[in-house]
Amino acid sequence: MQFSYSRVDLFKRCPYHFKLRYIDRLTELPNYEANSPLIVGHALHTGIEKGKKAMLKEFYNAFPLVTNDVINEAIKLEHNLEKAKEWLSDFNNSFSFTGGYVFIHEYEINKPEFIGFVDLIVKRKGTNDIAIIDFKYSNAIEKYKESPQLQIYKYYLEQEGYNVIAMGYLFLPKTSIRQKKDEDLIQFRKRLNVTMRKLKTTCLKIEPQEMEIIYFLNECKEIKEAIQEKTFNWIKNPNDECFACNPRFAPEYLEQLRDDKGELIMTLPKNIRREKKIDERPDFWIYGDSYVGKSTFVDKFDDLLFLNTDGNTDNTTSPVINIKDEVVKEGRITKRTFAWEQFLNVVSELETDKDSGFKAIAIDLFEDLREHCRIYVFDKNGWEHESDGGYGKGWTMVKTEFNNAIKRLKNLGYQIIYISKEVKSETTLKGGAVRTNFIPNIDDKTANFTTGTVDLTIRAFMNSDGVRLLQLSKQRNVFGGGRFNFLNDTCELSKDEFIQELINAQKASHAKITAKIKPIKEEIKEDKSVKQTVKEETKGTEEVPPGETITDKEEVIEEPKRKTRKRKSSTKEAVEEAKAEEKEETLDEKPKRTRRSRRKKTE
């Protein structure tokens, strides 16, 4: 195993979650909350390296839809980017560097036994002297004084011939203020801007601690032994320091079913049925206005089973199972089988099915299925609304019941297709203009969960000329996105056209990767030769490290584009900071309370 600071840190705090992520390799569903630490943090690093335009593009494109909350976070990002650039422009004020220096962003340390990314290396020209800086979007400053992260980077950078003379964290301020009930969105954003202007960056210098690397290497050895020892006890949260064990921030894994208390019910077999090849049958979620032809489009896929909730099957020819309540009267007793129970029975049958020949399952309509689940949970608990279950419990029980069933369906190995109707929402832009959005007819949290379980989410619509189309490319006011980089923005609402666009996108992506292989290999050779000369550098000769150029004064270096790295958020600091932020936050608005009439039970 190739170790990193975050991997070892996670093992120390929670061996259980280390096993899930790095040994079992479960599929973690993306977090599309506007303040997602991963999305916000990575966008901020992009901004520091490439500027505001690149930062906002990456940030907005990370979400299925740009909402008011996303724009609020973008405002915070812009302020923090200005603060970071201001600090970097006066770097000498924090670290005394005489003469000129250059910035090297996102420097990769890649050893057989270790991998790490240094946010920023500041190199003094004409020497091997460097300072290493790590950016933190956090208010938990004190907790990082004991962090060994920079000590580890220092150890491996010095193996490459650099002389680390300074280390530090740059903390970019974080605020969790929310919109008050008596202020509109424009007023809130004005208050947010005022708040962000008042906040300051903090630079925390770190002194060398030689023992930290010894501890780190011993911990790496301990992990190796734990993996080899089949009887090792992968205990959960031994010191109450695991971020992932906090129910509020626990990651959601596609292969895990949990109860409403967050306890593990079972781990499903990992779905590995698809090879790395051209995928003509991706899992997708299609939504659009009524009568645009969504179901007819899906019906063109071969070996398809429809699970229909609205009875509208006149225009489809594939086999169908109606998901609806079934009522049977036996004498004076009326027995009801809820639609949700029917769906669960279908999933159970499909789990053992080997002879039907189905290759795809389509749920039409997906939002109806979610409502059937809701009604089932209400009846089971004697509720009329989620709030009858106590603070947060009702919503959690409905979400858990629904998500677990969808995970079971996803792991059957079929192509999964969800069909939904379209509704409109509005987003207020920073300038006050209002933009209309097109979104699936389902609540935001369920939408974010659902789009994380499919390969792409697409909108079907009719243009002004009456032509039915599929929206393929990402638009900020259209809920959607996925893992394919389509060459065209739209295509006709036709299975053949859609499949051809899928093939073209994957072939283009493959060609782009193939074209990069040779330059990457040459870059690696050049990188190794440069690192070797660092050790032999003489006083009168200045060698240029990878990605660096020489100018008379300070300049920002753009490294060759690398794969996006994921920043882990499994630290005690994040947990404690989140708990502190809870005191600042106001309660989230609950969904509008809609009661259902009670059915009279017949004796």
From TrEMBL:
Residue ranges, annotated region (Disordered): 527-603
InterPro entries: PDDEXK_AddAB-type
Every PD-(D/E)XK endonuclease-like domain range: 2-233
Signal sequence residues: none
Biased composition annotated in UniProt, kind: Basic and acidic residues: 527-542, 550-561, 570-582
Amino acid composition bias (Basic residues), ranges on this chain: 592-603
Protein's name according to its UniProt entry: Phage NTP-binding protein
Organism (species): human gut metagenome
